[in-house]
Hints:
The complex is a heterotrimer of chains A (463), B (59) and C (92). With 463 residues, chain A is an alpha+beta fold. Chain A contains 16 helices and 22 strands. In chain A, the strands form eight sheets. A four-stranded mixed β-sheet of chain A has the order 14-13-15-22. Chain A has a four-stranded mixed β-sheet with strand order 16-21-17-20. In chain A, strand 11 (170-174) and strand 12 (179-182) form a beta hairpin. By secondary structure, chain B is an alpha+beta fold. Chain C is an alpha/beta fold. Chain C is extended, with a radius of gyration of 17 Å. Chain C has a three-stranded parallel β-sheet, with helices on both faces. Chain C has helices at 41-54, 73-82; strands at residues 3-6, 30-35, 58-63, 85-91. Classes of the chains: A alpha+beta (463), B alpha+beta (59), C alpha/beta (92). Strand 10 of chain A pairs antiparallel with strand 1 of chain C, so a sheet runs across the interface.
Amino acid sequence: xxxxxxxxxxxxxxxxxxxxxxxxxxxxxxxxxxxxxxxxxxxxxxxxxxxxxxxxxxxxxxxxxxxxxxxxxxxxxxxxxxxxxxxxxxxxxxxxxxxxxxxxxxxxxxxxxxxxxxxxxxxxxxxxxxxxxxxxxxxxxxxxxxxxxxxxxxxxxxxxxxxxxxxxxxxxxxxxxxxxxxxxxxxxxxxxxxxxxxxxxxxxxxxxxxxxxxxxxxxxxxxxxxxxxxxxxxxxxxxxxxxxxxxxxxxxxxxxxxxxxxxxxxxxxxxxxxxxxxxxxxxxxxxxxxxxxxxxxxxxxxxxxxxxxxxxxxxxxxxxxxxxxxxxxxxxxxxxxxxxxxxxxxxxxxxxxxxxxxxxxxxxxxxxxxxxxxxxxxxxxxxxxxxxxxxxxxxxxxxxxxxxxxxxxxxxxxxxxxxxxxxxxxxxxxxxxxxxxxxxxxxxxxxxxxxxxxxxxxxxxxx
Amino acid sequence: xxxxxxxxxxxxxxxxxxxxxxxxxxxxxxxxxxxxxxxxxxxxxxxxxxxxxxxxxxx
Amino acid sequence: xxxxxxxxxxxxxxxxxxxxxxxxxxxxxxxxxxxxxxxxxxxxxxxxxxxxxxxxxxxxxxxxxxxxxxxxxxxxxxxxxxxxxxxxxxxx
Lengths: 463, 59, 92
């Protein structure tokens, strides 16, 4: 039984201790309870390792193992657990307990570091007294150019509470250095990114997706094209963690969006070794390579979600990763119907990367809610819209061959007589996101598909 | 590179490691310094010069 | 109080800075002498300057405002842009 003197309920039940055999631990005052040989749990080791949240807690132990417990004073529970039918019959039937000292907010972090710290295997960096911890991290080359939250043991342990997975569990193998990344290392980089513990499972899922052969993060890094991983998140969990799917969805301001995307990039850099100017050869890059993560706007969307279209359930939490550049705006404030709007979309999609380059690149179309409404009113669902767009993007080879329109770029000569789609059959992805006011959508140009390129990958988020 | 008196040997090792520069070039003079005459300082400089040049250039 | 951070990297490399390649000789090079402003250091550096100049080295002299703090950014930048090599002295 665990008690503390500074608790009226513990004082109330203290006299009962003479009626049955119990090992009594006192958190604060070793002389309490009177008349009982209590053990002083001064450093709260016992309370911590028995997950005591409330005092008094009464635990029944058989053969050294906990069989049941009750917290606070509930007479029926105490009578059953002790087997004494008349126990406390002169006391009120129930009385709530008090907070255990081992969950005192002032103590929790240091207790976790003291008792949980042994779980952390990362190399420790000791700072000299005069070191500024923010500057040290810049100097060590582990930031993305912005300051990071210093990953102390306490912060990392707190971060690890965000997942039930063990700290030493290997999540993925990260290119280009092909190093195994553990939950712990992801937690360290997530602390640095500024994540909260509830963001950690999303970072883990994103890294599982990014580190697949299909996504090919090595290629995505090594290319001279501007792409980086773009994270599109689905499921009720996105709303639970406050991920933005609306106004300014690609921009700043929402911690979940920015820190989850950032954590993924920090792991790619710090564990995988993917750094600009080294393996990362992007000529221009794009600002999304700091962080590019958003949620699809599912509530009220005219389309099934991206995750559902890729075989997941509407209630599944998922991350889809796509190798993408920065977004480009599609303006159409005048289209009166779905066909007209689709014509605009097709004309804009035609110019993704280059009007004369086809099939080799994938693309993501993000439909804003006001544009989405135009399609909803016409009864166009996801498949219909994509079909209509593909149909409008069948282009005759004579327009596309190298040299046509006096542009050197284009497809080889021998395709001059063919009709080619701008995108391969699965090459156009569709998501619904953005603020509710504004007749705009967006194109996120992709990277090469095919065996040396990248394919979008979706993974479920598991706590 | 830096020149320091022999008092600095251990501190230099620790500090250079923690700054991520464990192999930074260094030459040590005798200690103490502050009460030496001008002639003694010149002699220290003459003694140290060869080692300084060797440290600065590739071998 | 020792502050401890966890290493976010793959721990394969020591988090180290790389050195610039060393020249073969100092002939014709520009060497900066940075006086950290501890007593007697100037006498030491005067002699080094004289000896290096005799060897055909171009010497530039600099001085930290105080030995107690790291060199100011402007001074470091000035040295970095004007010199190929730096000798910093004399710590005791």
